[in-house]
Design goal:
The chain is mostly helical. It has one domain. The protein contains 6 helices and no strands. Helix 1 runs antiparallel to helix 2 and helix 2 runs antiparallel to helix 3. It is elongated and about 75 Å long. The mean pLDDT is 84.
Length: 162
């Protein structure tokens, strides 16, 4: 193999390295999403086990269902991002080997991957905000007050709560 071909292959490998790191980061995010989903499923099963068959389901179950939907969408978008990044790497190599300029295709796939990753993180953020917001419904009022001591003791603050 000529030395110029070795340099060309090395350049393609270097260009594929950044998407490969991105792929491992997306994989780590998918692991976080899957763990969140597992916790939601576990909590749902525990709550359903305590509810009488003819009783109305508590508001927490509805919140858990919504959280599960957001995590499911986050996993779907994260998986889509991982597939698109894999295509970026594959198309870059195929383009090099076939000596065809696939730059626009690679760029489009990368932009689509970033869009899917952005959506995945947006769905995840929404799920986390639902989880934090549901704490006030789940926890007794005394615990919530202890978590927000300024709210309960504004009058005790210097200068009349200022």
């Amino acid at each position: 193999m000529e030395e110029s071909h070795v340099h060309d292959i090395a350049r393609v490998i270097q260009m594929a390295l950044a998407p490969a790191f991105l792929l491992s980061a997306v994989g780590a995010l998918l692991n976080v999403f899957a763990n969140r989903l597992a916790r939601i499923v576990d909590r749902t099963r525990a709550l359903e086990g305590r509810i009488a068959p003819d009783a109305e389901s508590p508001a927490e179950l509805e919140t858990l269902q919504r959280r599960g939907e957001f995590v499911r969408w986050a996993i779907t978008m994260g998986t889509g991002a991982a597939l698109l990044v894999s295509l970026v790497i594959g198309v870059a190599f195929v383009g090099f080997l076939a000596q065809v300029n696939f730059a626009m295709i690679v760029a489009g796939l990368f932009v689509a991957a970033m869009g899917a990753l952005t959506l995945a993180l947006t769905f995840f953020l929404r799920e986390v905000s639902l989880a934090v917001g549901s704490l006030e419904v789940i926890l007794p009022r005394s615990v919530v007050r202890s978590l927000h001591p300024r709210d309960a003791r504004d009058d005790d603050a210097p200068l009349g709560g200022a």
